[in-house]
Structure formats: C-alpha cells, structure tokens
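To: structure subgroup
Subject: Chain for Friday's discussion

All,

I'm putting the inputs and outputs inline so they're searchable in the archive.
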Amino acid sequence: MLLAACGLARCAPDPLSQSDFDALYSAPLPAPADALSVFHVGHSLVGRDMPAMLQQLAGQGHSHASQLGWGTPLKAHWEPDETVNGLELVNTATEAREAIASGSSDAVVITEMVEIRDAIKYFNSAEYVANWARLAWEADPQTRVYLYESWHEITDPEGWLERLDRDLTLYWEGELLRRALASDDMEKPIYVIPAGQVFGRFVGEIEARGGVGDMTRREDLFALNNEGAQDPIHFNDIGAYLVALTHYAVLYQRNPVGLPHELTKADGTPAKTPGPEAARLMQEIVWEVVTGYPKTGVPQR
C-alpha cells in the first residue's frame, strides 16, 4: 500500500517502535512563556472561525494565520504543482511553505485530510507530516509542531465513536506519526491536538446523560448545509468552540475551565453559544483528555 502511495517520492520508513515512540513523549513540553503566533495548515475542519475563537480564548498577543483548502491533503499544500481546491490564505500574504520557512511562527499546526485511510493510501501522509515538521524546525528549532487529530463522518457505517476510539492509535499515531518520526533526522516529537478524542468523549457524555443544557446528541456539534440538511462532518459554531478549547489547552497548557463561551466568529458576528452548562462540561472534558494523553506534550495528571 505504501509503495503505491509514494510513487517516485521518498517513502516514509517503517514505523518507529511503540516503545521508542512513547519514549519521545516521556517528558512534557515546557509551557510557552508568552502568547503564540500560530500557523494552521489544513482544510475546512480548521476553517476561519475556529482560529478566531482560539485567539479570543488566548487573549492579547496571540495571532494566527492559515492556509486552507477543501478536503486538502498535506501533500497538496506542500507540492507547488499540486492544486489546492478552494485555496484560501487567512491573515497571511504568503503561502504556507514560505511563511513557515521565515521562522515567524511559534507553533505550526498541521492536519491531514479525512477519510484518513485514503490520505495514507494515496497521498503519502507520513512523509508530508515529516516535511512540514522539518521545514518548521529548520527555520527555528524551537518551533512547536502539532498534528491536529480530527474525525470522520458521523454517518460512518463502522460507527463514529468506534472509529474515534480505534483510529487515533491505528492511523494518526501508527501510520502518520510513528512513520514520520522514524526518519533519522526526526529527533523530537510532533505533538497531538486530540480534537477527535474530545469530540468522542463529549458526545459519549451528553448522550449517556440524555443531554446537557441544549446539547443532546452528536448532531448538535455539526452544521446544516444550505438546504437545511445535516452536514455529517463540518462543525457548527458550537463544534468550532470545542475544537478551539482543545487547541487552547494543548498549545498553552492551561486548564480551560472558566473561559468565556460567548465568542464571535471571524467576521465579527456572534457565534452560537453552547450555553453555560454544556460549555462547562466541554471545558472539563478537554482538560481531562489533554492531561490524560502524553502525546499532547501537556503535563499529565
């Protein structure tokens, strides 16, 4: 499978052993001393609103820029002859490779397209994860590099929660990170922003309780399309807030409990709020997940 994905490109090596992989994350990353400048490379599961919400949560001094496409693999963002459908540069005048190579970003957050299995099979995901990390570290060895773990469609026939439980270790770690970090020149961790795990934990909790505030089911985190039908993968304002909380907790290593839940979108209009009760549960679950997963780089509870 990997040979077919690589073609003439350099293939990622065999995965790093589980013990060597775990050892890379045995010590937490020091918390940042100052506000961060963050560059996001990804697609519509980043979007415009989530980074804007993160900036509001982080407060004065935080800045962000993004290069986004529609369902875009990391390979397409990297290769100059690839087309990035729906290419959008947000808060930056230069494309991602040039911006990151300048060393102006304190943190670089990358995410792969989903279906993650297709990204691995057809777009040599691990090698491009490594490429983006190398680029950031060559510009400044102190740059923090993160892989944003997302999710798949809530209609997945294999089960949405079941795949969230399985895919983190099997694909995001096993096929992306463990292969990317197996290269001889990859000597430090790429950390994980486990948004998929947070989504799964939050949905499991509200569905088990029969609802919290106005949140009763997984669909409450996801958008409706222009015809009013359920979008099975793109978050709404409330989902964007949950992802922003997860980014905040990982990037700043701060407990998000008590942060505001009434925010604005990137265009300055008010975002729909989850309400105080659901927002509190979101914040608590984010911190539980982040401090229970060493690959975040956050000190563990």
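Points worth raising on Friday:
Residues 60 and 147 are 24 Å apart (CA to CA).
The beta strands are 37-42, 63-68, 88-90, 107-110, 144-149, 191-194, 222-224, 230-235.

D.
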